[in-house]
Amino acid sequence: MAAEAVIRISGLVNQFGKQVIHDGVDLEVMRGEVLGLVGGSGSGKSVLMRTILGLNRPRAGKIELLGVDISRMDADARAATQTRCGVLFQDGALFSSLSVTENVQAPMREHLRLDQALMDELAALKIAMVGLPPDAGPKLPGELSGGMRKRAGLARALALDPEILFLDEPTAGLDPIGAAAFDSLIRDLQHSLGLTVVMVTHDLDTLIAICDRIAVLVDKKVRVGTMAEHLGDPHPWIQEYFHGPRARAAFASADGGKG
User: Fold this and answer.
1) Cβ–Cβ under 8 Å, residues 100 and 152
2) Checking DSSP bridges between strand 34-39 and strand 196-200, what pairing results, if any?
3) How many Å separate Cα 128 from the centre of its chain?
4) CB 21: neighbour CB atoms within 10 A?
5) Which of 8, 29, 102, 221 sits most deeply, having the most CB atoms within 10 A of its CB?
């Protein structure tokens, strides 16, 4: 049975003033895969993610999210679709005045009608799922380490049991051990929950460890393939990115870990 495309983008153009960011982007994301999204500074990685989510209106093109054309959604349809997507922004974007539990419950309050006891139970489950201890729930984001804030943000992204999880630089700011642990957590959750994951990242270790395919933004378009396919791509930026010193170190580390 052929895999189902849960995101289908065709002819996408994003332009701000005279600056064209994307010029004819075509991309399909298949259900159940982990897709990494990479590109140079200014290539529009986060802009693309925000456009898929309906937070940025493109100049041209079509985006189907979970089978629905987002440009044709009314407010109710957009809200319904957003409940099927979870988002972890780069800085976690937690409400600083709310506890971790209250942050996780925020999407539930907005989209669901549940009593407090059930929300408390569900929030505790999400907090445990991302590897945080129970005593993290009552704490404010400012009382947590950077890695714990990332996990709290992930728990909130999972609050409504999404089908698609969007991650914006999930390992940025983490030390190598913390980043590797977060990679493993994402892969474990993807397997256990059947998630589709779209991940903006610059972290080669993450690309090697957990991504099934990689979408590279170059020349205002996107080139999609496996790691092996990108390694053979002659495009100068792709060659530099996947064959540079950091890439060699990442591949050496991955090979060493398998040995």
Assistant:
1) yes
2) parallel
3) 20
4) 22
5) 29
Residue 55: CA count within 13 A, CB half-sphere: 10
Distance separating alpha carbons of residues 172 and 175, to the nearest angstrom: 9
Q: Residue type at 186?
A: I
Angle at 6 (CA atoms; ends 154, 119), nearest 5 degrees: 35
Nearest alpha-carbon partner for 163 in 111, 69, 82, 85? 85
Whose structure tokens read 């990679």? 183
For 150-179, what is each residue's pLDDT tens digit?
A: 999 999 999 999 999 999 999 998 998 999
Tokens of 254: 């991955």
Q: Compute the distance between CA of residue 236 and CA of residue 246 in angstroms, rounded to an integer.
A: 16
Residues 40-95 have pLDDT tens digits of 988 999 999 999 988 889 999 999 999 989 888 888 888 888 889 999 987 668 99
Distance of CA 199 to the CA centre of its chain: 4
SS3 of 24, please? strand
Cβ neighbours of residue 55 under 8 Å, at least 6 residues apart?
none
- C-beta atoms surrounding 124 within 10 Å: 16
d(CA 238, CA 214): 11
At residue 100's C-alpha, the angle toward residues 99 and 103, to 5°, is 85
How many whole angstroms separate alpha carbon 155 and alpha carbon 71?
Answer: 29
Contact 165, 158 (CB under 8 A): yes
Q: How far apart are CA 38 and CA 203, in angstroms?
A: 9
